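Supplementary notes for students who missed Thursday's class. We covered one full example, reproduced here. Read the sequence, then the structure, then the short commentary at the end.
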Amino acid sequence: MLKKPFILMALFSVELIIFLAQACTPDTAADIMSPDARVVLGFSLNSDGVPHYAVTFADQEFIRPSILGFSFRDAPALSGNFKVLNITKQRKSSVWLPVWGQIDSVENDYTEMLVNLQEREKPFRRMSLEFRAYDDGVGFRYIIPEQENLSHLEITAENTQFNFAHNDSVWWTEADFDSYEKLYNHTSLSKMIAANTPVTMQTPFGFFASIHEADLQNYAGMTLKQSDTDSLLFTTELVPWPDGVKVKADLPITTPWRTIQLAPNAGALIHSHLIENLNRPNKIADVGWIKPMKYVGIWWGMHIDKYTWSQGPKHGATTQNTKAYIDFASEHNIPAVLVEGWNEGWENWGKADAYNFTQPYSDYDLPSLVKYADKKGVKLIAHTETGGDVPGFERQLEAAFSLYESLGIPAVKTGYAGAILPAGQHHHGQWMVNHYQKVVETAAKYHLMIDAHEPIAPTGLYRTWPNMMTREGARGQEYNAWSEGNPPDHTTILPFTRCLAGPLDYTPGIFDIKFDRYKKENDVHSTRAKELALMVVLYSPLQMAADLLENYENRPEFAFIEHVPTTFDETLVLNAKIGDYVTIARRKGDSWYIGSITDEQARTFHFPLDFLKPGQKYQLAVYADDPKADYERKPDPVVILKHDVTQGSVLELNLAAGGGAAVEIHPVVMR
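Structure (token representation):
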């Protein structure tokens, strides 16, 4: 792995370009292969001049010829009667260094094909298709250049098809223009009517794939909709404006990439960096202020009804309560404290201009708390819940972010719970995509990191704007507090679906699984050891230990949360079966951290520690389920085992039903 100073991580790039062909003779078909030749991405025009693409993996057809094109309001469709002007191909290879992430360097190695098209008849409109083939999948996008008599378009449909070759096994959530917070379905592809992406599937040939998008900017989010006539044919369904138009833009338009991650096994999907690679390089020159961190916070207490967000007798965000969190964070080397419900307006949730993002409640002394935290070596994380009132938030955006920077607050958790104002706009539509982008760019101006809740799904923009740290965009921990909860297999599906898109703020680390003192009818369908393991399995550079402080006090297993990093140099998937189990090992420096989780079935795993350095002695600590543990009947007990290991050792992990195990491995310094 490459070594580097922190500030230079995102700035260094070495690029090798090998031109395979330039200005190929115009033809009606062409293809490119991935560097390892397993992935083939083909382009063709049919006799009516309609562009198509197709994908094969390991000599197996995955996407049959599928139509590409657009429909517009007040203009003819741009979907046929094309001729090829020219086709260029080139091979590109580079390495870029993330500011933070699951590995310390990313290879960006692909073959590219640019197809330039023009209509055969008036008005002779032009469109380009850009294709890339990687070892771990493909990406393609549209480019509509500015041209004579065409400067603005209103897209009513992007007609991109995914014509699947087989009735694959698929993990998916129902399409929703405002939320991804649903449990996953596992069905045959033919039973998926409409879905949010990422959509992940296993083919009859054993390989895996996931459909999503990359570099989503100034465009609507994508869902997949099944054809009325063919159960294996899906079309891109974009999230609409209130008037039904999907995208409104001046030319030139460059769409997001449509991505298809491909892998020989489920674990290799997690190793894919296709989505990040299809984004643009880092735009923040000085990244020294961008610092991944763990935090605790006044949050879970509101969900279990111990506290309220609004001011009153059970108000959580008081000066006294926040000081207790600061003291705990300082004592346990946790860098930050999140406080929700600190600002005026929570009693008006859902109304326009409800919130004041610079004015604290009278029982929350923000300036003195910042000073108190600074003395303790702790930072506060701000929270800006909008209730969906986006115009009200934007009016205060500069003032709020300027205040937070002046106070030394390093990060902001944003929220958009509820219907978006103005009415008719959707969380995943173009208007909101542009709002989310405005927030992250304004945050960069004021040296603030962002944790976005109720967001658009990540599409790799954290490469371009590395202060976009993490997002929700999934059914998270809070559902355990006020619903039937997340079943044990939910977190064994997330790494292969939502987490392929980018970091997830799931808020793990609940120790009081039953919390009967506050709610007898709800609980976390997990063991405490599994909650520790989730700190590794569900990656986030801002990672919250979400429970109440009193549940962490005098718990030796909290040491794992103290020790586990939030950015890593290397990641290995040791085993994986979607919906059943997954084990992930991550290296930081010379130390390793492992998280292993299972569904409702108890399991025992054995892992050779062959990834350790030869000749080096290590001390291993396992935080495991007690032999009598069970997520329903006895979820709390954790056994801590410590012993020395070397590269030749075998790690045994015993996971209870609904359980897990967390492991840390540190080199022993020889004297």
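Commentary. The domain at 10-277 is CATH 2.70.98.10 (Beta-galactosidase; Chain A, domain 5). Confidence is low (pLDDT under 50) at residues 1-25. If anything here is unclear, bring it to office hours.
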